[in-house]
Write a structure and sequence with these properties.
Strand order of the largest sheet: 1-2-5-4-3-6-7
Structural class: alpha+beta
Number of strands: 7
Number of helices: 2
Distance between the termini: 60 Å
Helix content: 10-25%
Strand content: over 45%
Order of helices and strands: HEEEEEHEE
CATH superfamily: Immunoglobulins
Radius of gyration: 21 Å
CATH architecture: Sandwich
Length: 167
């Protein structure tokens, strides 16, 4: 009985250590760099978003696609997917573009409130798909912030520096 427990422990400890080494100690960060409107129909608008992936790990990161939801004030207004193939060296950044398809009815419903308050809370939630020596894995990413529309890119605060629109 004791030998079987010892054998099980000797098998499980290295297996557990291998599993933890497959995990990312410092997961990548995602930031929104730019948005451009591409086209619009009665029911849907398409925006192209430039996203930046920051790799805080010394190990390189290979991205093989992404899938995200875009929300305004906690309500999903669109989805985006990308088949982008990109490598992010260790302790470096890289950008990729992805299309978001926005449900106009959902976005317009939120637009009135945004115009009245001149601000909104935005969120991007989804996954980056990464290739590793252990196979493909998905890395959950969640980013949120506030967009203040009362500030413009050329407005200056008393210190003389531009105030950020995204926080």
């Amino acid at each position: 009985m004791r030998k079987s427990r010892l054998i099980i422990a000797l098998v499980l400890i290295p297996a557990a250590m291998a599993c933890t080494s497959m995990g990312l100690t410092d997961p990548p960060e995602l930031t929104l760099v730019n948005i451009q409107f591409r086209d619009s129909t009665l029911f849907e608008s398409t925006i192209e978003a430039t996203m930046r992936v920051l790799n805080p790990s010394p190990e390189p990161l290979k991205i093989e696609g992404a899938s995200f939801k875009l929300s305004l004030d906690g309500h999903t207004v669109g989805r985006g997917v990308s088949q982008a193939q990109l490598s992010v060296d260790g302790l470096a950044t890289n950008t990729f573009r992805m299309d978001f398809h926005i449900n106009n009815a959902s976005a317009l419903f939120r637009l009135r409130q945004i115009i009245e308050t001149k601000s909104t809370h935005y969120g991007i939630k989804g996954k980056l798909f990464s290739a590793t020596s252990y196979g493909r894995r998905s890395i959950r990413i969640e980013k949120a912030g506030d967009l203040d529309l009362s500030k413009t890119a050329d407005s200056l605060n008393p210190g003389g520096t531009p105030e950020p629109m995204l926080q």
